[in-house]
Design brief:
The chain is about 15% helix and about 35% strand. The chain is mainly beta. The protein folds into two domains: about 10-230, Beta-galactosidase, Chain A, domain 5, CATH 2.70.98; about 255-324, no CATH class.
């Protein structure tokens, strides 16, 4: 996957969520957008808007790789497969749930499975709190390092995923995984409350249970019309925007889109076989494109972020009196 000036194509992003917030993950393993602890909070990761100062959480093989990704069945659990010259690994990730409901904290689990060969990987946590305006304070709490700022605490737990190495404003690690081996990274966030330290067994169990929760939720529908898989995926995408604490629906997982038509690439996965936007996607991008009722799905549109590419408004010229 190639970036331009640090920006990824919007078509490279996949979304995961827990009914409280949504993370956008680029195909190169970088979480480039996440507001914590909720959708309406300031960002902790916003490299999607500012690659240098926005913050991100990366996990990827060291060196060159090819990537393919999918959601695990009819769920919002993401599976990404990285193929390198040395082997193949699969990353399974989700914002976890417990017993079908929200945890008291936000937990992002990233499971790494060695599939073939032996692959070296690197990860790096670079939080930038309050829309990138507040750098983190890296402190040590017992045996763990914590990033603090803007009332938030972030703990990173690495099981068989390398030692956590602190830097001035980041935490990082590296490791190598062979076929048949498994590693786990868990990011835990708490806002103005004590930071939970989960066990690996509990994180693994919640990740597996989160998949079952999504399957159970979609299993209650009875749709048997055309484009069944496309409609199912649209329903899952819209479900990510439902704020579970009060049932309200967010317009988007990111900041508001520009009111004027913007330029963005939409993945073919969002299109129906006839090239039209799926119904859910048409509504989702209604604020980006003024009319989608009779046009293909924003064909040939290019780069994100949306709100940074609108033309500046020109001041209205005052007309002299008597000129009308």
């Amino acid at each position: 996957m190639k970036r331009r000036d640090g920006f990824a194509l919007i078509s490279s992003y996949a979304a995961i969520g827990d009914g409280r917030t949504v993370a956008l993950i680029a195909a190169d393993g970088s979480i480039d957008f996440l507001s914590l602890p909720s959708l309406d909070a300031p960002t902790t990761f916003a490299a999607m808007l500012d690659p240098e100062r926005g913050g991100r959480f990366t996990l990827a093989p060291a060196g060159d790789f090819e990537v393919s990704r999918r959601y695990a069945g009819r769920t919002n659990v993401l599976e990404t497969t990285y193929r390198t010259g040395a082997g193949v690994v699969r990353v399974t990730e989700a914002l976890t749930l417990q017993d079908g409901g929200l945890l008291p904290w936000v937990e992002l689990a990233r499971r790494i499975d060695g599939m073939e060969g032996s692959v070296p990987l690197e990860w790096r946590l670079e939080p930038r709190f309050d829309w990138g305006r507040e750098p983190p304070r890296i402190v040590r709490r017992g045996e763990r390092f914590v990033a603090e700022g803007a009332g938030l605490q972030l703990g990173i737990h690495a099981w068989d995923a390398g030692e956590v190495e602190p830097e001035d404003d980041a935490l990082r690690g590296s490791f190598e995984i062979a076929a048949g081996e498994r590693a786990m990274l868990a990011l835990v966030a708490a806002y103005e409350q004590p930071l939970h330290a989960p066990s690996r067994d509990h994180v693994e169990a919640r990740l597996d249970a989160t998949r079952r929760v999504w399957e159970r939720w979609l299993g209650m529908w009875a749709y048997d019309g055309p484009w069944e898989e496309e409609v199912a995926r649209s329903a899952l995408a819209l479900k990510l925007l439902v704020y579970a604490p009060n049932g309200s629906i967010a317009a988007a997982p990111t900041i508001s889109a520009a009111p004027a038509p913007a330029r963005a690439v939409i993945s073919p996965a969002f299109r129906t076989p006839r090239g039209r936007c799926r119904p859910a996607v048409r509504g989702f991008f209604a604020s980006i494109q003024r009319s989608t009722s009779s046009t293909p799905c924003m064909r040939e549109w290019s780069w994100f972020p949306i709100s940074y590419f609108q033309e500046p408004k020109r001041p209205r010229e005052k007309m002299p009196r008597g000129s009308r």
